[in-house]
Q: What sequence folds into this?
């Protein structure tokens, strides 16, 4: 399920901003929630889909030429079907 869709860019190392591409694996629920909040603030749409600590996420990122080093990002949550 699609959770977030947003535009971003690749920042220089000294810029202190949320860098979605540096997030790999949350070590705590607090870290995970912080990451989710940052993406929700950037999201272009409210999909109503949320994730919980331990859920598996997929991040797709492609070039966005609206700005230098721009990125267009889609974040989805893995959904399992019950048999």
A:
């Amino acid at each position: 399920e699609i959770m977030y869709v947003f535009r971003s860019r690749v920042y220089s190392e000294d810029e202190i901003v949320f860098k979605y591409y540096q997030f790999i694996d949350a070590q705590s629920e607090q870290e995970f929630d912080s990451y989710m909040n940052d993406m929700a603030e950037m999201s272009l749409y409210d999909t109503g889909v949320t994730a919980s600590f331990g859920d598996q996420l997929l991040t797709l990122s492609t070039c966005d030429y609206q700005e230098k080093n721009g990125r267009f990002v889609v974040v989805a949550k893995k959904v399992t079907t019950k048999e």
In short: Helices lie at 29-42. The chain has a mean pLDDT of 92. The longest strand covers residues 2-9. Residues 29-42 form the longest helix (14 residues).
